[in-house]
Amino acid sequence: MCDTSPDLRIRREWSTLSPYDRALYLDAVETSIERGYHQRFVSWHATLPLHLFAHETCAFFLYHRRYTLAYETMLRSLGTRYACLSVPFWDVFSERAAQEDGTYDCRSYGACSPIVHDLGGTAEDAGEDDWTYRRAANNVRELGWVHDGPPMQGYYDADGKKGFVRFDVLVERIPPEASREAVLDLFATSENSTLAFWRKLQFGTHDRVHDTIGGFMRSRASPVDPVFIPWHATVDLLGYLWELCHDNDDDDADDYETELLMAEDLDGRCLYTNNAKQFYGNFSFDHEWYMNESNIDGGSIWIGDIYDDPLIGHFFSNSNASNLWRLQDRANKTTTIMGDGPSRTLRHGYIYNNDALPMLQRMLKSNSDACPTSLRNFIQVDDTIRKHNQNLTAPTYSDAELVTIQQGWMERAIGHWSAALEDGNDNAVETKKRHAECVLRNMDHDTLERWAIDDAFVSEIVMNERSVFSSSCKHLLTNKPEAEYGNLSLISLDSVALVASPSLRPSLVPSTSKHPSSSSAPTSTKSEESVSRNTGSVPAATMPHQIVIACIVSIWIILSAKWH
Fold it and tell me: Which of 98, 248, 251, 408 could form a disulfide with 104, with the two C-beta atoms 3.0–4.6 Å apart?
């Protein structure tokens, strides 16, 4: 059942979701890790030149709007029961208020934020000796305590080590920049300039939450952390509120849009660092974002085109930013919903529920300096799916039921292999059977339960021969070439930023992993199974002298500027 229509997505705050919706989101992220989608999104975000574009220019806000929307689209593609899913947002502002209120028993992210518990967990038993490095895509290394709570039980870093790193969120406090008062000040002091608001939001509230959670969240590989997407949905929501505060109902483009379309000296206002000026010297909101040709010392560097990525490219749409800066549109009347004000069209098919950040909405409505329109055009939607899902419960299975289900899977698998392989090829059937049995042995209860709900065994293991537990099971498929397993080298997209023509583009291949489900209660759950992560090989198109040049360029970028 979808929100009002299949084309409309309503984003809701995590703590307001029903247990069913929270479990559904966890299952979706776990599945995306298992199939390698999550890791591919991380790889692109961690690529140096694209990270530069997304964080040292004013493209920050729109880049992450597209990125979050594409991730949401990816989750919806994972199966029938995920088709109506929307990513949640995170009301950290209310949690900051609770942290500062002496009547509440919470003094940190870990104690005040249910979403931090539910997405990744806490390192409750960690000691000083457990402070360690983890390496993510594109050789990004970060320090912290290892976390592997839902939905991250199946995540393995680039070195095959289980889990991701954060700071100790049971100690780290929610920063002042994440208070409602600080956000209200952003609205009031940006002088009606969208570019100024985006920049203050990025380098203030946005950055401080990343930095205080720490670990991968303070690096180019920040999307490793499952809190990243809900946090950026929240940042996107703040941008939507800014849009509504400056939506003046005129038929012509208002100040909000005019600044972006017609601003003079856009380069000077949008390129924040010398590196950004060298890579993106002719900045425009109308240019192609992911296929960038730049000159460093006279050499052209091909960065790559995300649309050509065979695993996740089709989840992205729109080749430029000019249609991303509004969620509501006056011109194209397609998915029109009536609000308190004039008729509005949703430009991207998603919206935030009516009571999103209610206290902040109230503060904006009562402060004309911060919000000249008093949010009068906030779209009111019939949140039917929310009411429907309150009464749903996620299916559960006993151990005995799962044994019976596994037996059925194996019978179907053997029948498929026997029919598909030539007569007399009993050895091949036996090889595939041993591999499938190995995969099942390595699954924990929660993962088996999720696979039972999605009936995923036949499609993932039998048809696609995904080796979810690489070191434990993959060797059993001795007759299958490495490249066909769907593994992607996390060595780097940076190392394929070749000084070459587009004809030398590498073939990017997906990766896989494993995982289970979670409860909605703020508890830390650690899985005890030991699994190792797949890593592939460097694309064959990479030639030695090109690798050397690309590495020199990457080192130059690292030494010239600091990203997070």
Answer: 98
Q: Are 169 and 239 in contact (CB under 8 A)?
A: no
Q: How far apart are CA 348 and CA 69, in angstroms?
A: 9
Type and span of the H or E element at 407: helix 399-420
Q: What is the distance between the alpha carbons of residues 211 and 64, in angstroms, rounded to a whole number?
A: 17
Of 53, 564, 562, the closest CA to residue 280 belongs to 53
Containing H/E element for 352? strand 350-352
- pTM comes to 0.78
Strand pairing partners for 261? Answer: none
Radius of gyration of the chain (CA): 24
Cα(347)–Cα(329) distance, integer angstroms = 6
Which pLDDT score is estimated for 177?
Answer: 97
What is d(CA 369, CA 346) in angstroms, rounded to the nearest whole number? 26
* Spans of the chain below 70 pLDDT: 1-7, 103, 124, 126-127, 248-268, 281-304, 317-323, 325, 328-348, 379-389, 421-425, 465-472, 474, 477-564
User: Measured on CA atoms in the order 24, 30, 31, 33, is the torsion positive or negative?
Assistant: positive
Nearest Cα residue to 167 out of 97, 227, 102: 227
- Single out the residue of 19, 14, 24 nearest to residue 517, CA to CA: 24
Q: Locate 50 and state its tokens.
A: 């694209």
539 φ/ψ angles, rounded to the nearest 5 degrees: -55, 140
Strands 132-135 and 141-147: antiparallel
Give every CB contact of residue 203 below 8 A, 6+ residues apart in sequence. Answer: none
Residue 395 burial (CB < 10 Å; 0-12/13-18/19+)? exposed
pLDDT score at 185: 96
Neighbours of 126 (CB within 10 A): 16
Q: What is the C-alpha end-to-end distance of the chain, expressed in Å? A: 39
Q: HEC states along 261-285?
A: HHCCCHHHHHECCHHHHHHCCCCCC
Distance CA 268, CA 338 (A): 39
d(CA 369, CA 237): 19
Two tokens, residue 417: 């292999």
